[in-house]
Amino acid sequence: MKTKRLLRFYFYSDGINGAIDNLINKFAFFCDGYHDGLFYAEKVCELVGVKLSLGGLWDYIDGIICKFTQSEKNVLRFYGSTRKSIAGLSADSKREIKRVTVKFTRRVRLTERHSEALNYLNKYYCLICLDR
Fold first, then answer.
1. How far is CA 20 from CA 11, 86, 125, 126, in A?
2. For the chain, which terminal residue's Cβ has fewer other Cβ atoms within 10 angstroms, N or C?
3. How far apart are the C-alpha atoms of 102 and 58, rounded to whole Å?
4. Is 57 within 8 Å of 121 (Cβ atoms)?
């Protein structure tokens, strides 16, 4: 999993949470003549499972990032929100970003334990909104 993707998920996960909540509400209150209530109940249960899985991944990353200083957290947030490379930044800024991201990637080695959540993150990644 790419570091920037994990950082975007951690710092901007409100978009995914809100979209999944909206889908849960849609399926919980939706009625049509084509499907019975069991179909929609299964959809709601599946989405609740997605939310629980992504919450576990978020908690894992939070346990790592909470040990960073506030300035390091700000660097990670900045790096996660950039849409282009850091090549245009000053040498000191690039060095600080690389130092903090290497520190982060060394500590986030056990993400394969959350493989199900990473699959869901790949599926719902387009719902992350960086503008908030």
1. 17, 32, 12, 12
2. C
3. 19
4. yes
